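Reopening this one. Same input as before:
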Amino acid sequence: MAVAFASRFSIEATRPTAAEIGELAAILPRGTPIYFSAVPTLTQRDIVAAALSLRQAGLEPVIHIAARRVASAGDLQELLAALRGEAGVRRLLVIGGDIDAVGPFADALAVIQKARLREAGIEDIGIGGYPEGHPRIPLGRLEASLDEKIASATAQGLKVHIVSQFSFSADRIIAWLKQLRAGGIKVPVKIGLAGPTSVPALMRYAKRCGVSASLRGLMSGAATALIGNVGPDRILDALAQAHDGLGDVQPHYFSFGGLIATARYAQDKADKEIAAPASASSR
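Same output, byte for byte:
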């Protein structure tokens, strides 16, 4: 894992413009997964158009499906058919969505069980993971839910991976990964990391997303960088070194500080990782 950790990354994007997608294509390798966030104000047409733009740019669109925001089973089937038919979408991130259900799907598990994803051409799904827990879901329920989602998806012939909420604590992330693996969960895990942005902005996102528990760890290492941007270097280094027992783990960047800045940061880390073995072997 230490050799191929930072170089196998994905990026979360919210409303990327045509210009941003063009810049992404110039920065990132072909096939880089770009996760397209489930923004409530987007129409189905907007989502399909964005997926198509990403596909045409040589990137891999991964579309968020927020279960509780789906108005009807028919709406979801219509969206999936358009995504597959027009943009060749094969991968989704299926999440609950932090609102009361407006339609037939009470949570992500209900979508996995009932939405006939394999029939719609979906091959691989991501599900949410929470290294610091969830502010509204008990820990025991979170653990059981992961098992249920993985079992249901696997029974349907779907590949499964976990995409975690971001955290600022490498120790928490590593402990959570070890707990997953000890519990028999062997699927790939994409570790949510906040891309480079200012500490005040990171603090706002942490509180909003319920990960304020690791803010003390952030501040202890970032107090001298309050006027500049901070990237997840320490977490990347810790994960690359703590490879024993962690299994298939990859970075997943949230672009809080800007999509293009995050892409450049991610690719720079990947390039340095790829160059390191060659440098070492030339000594």
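So the earlier flakiness isn't reproducible anymore. For the record, The radius of gyration is 18 Å.
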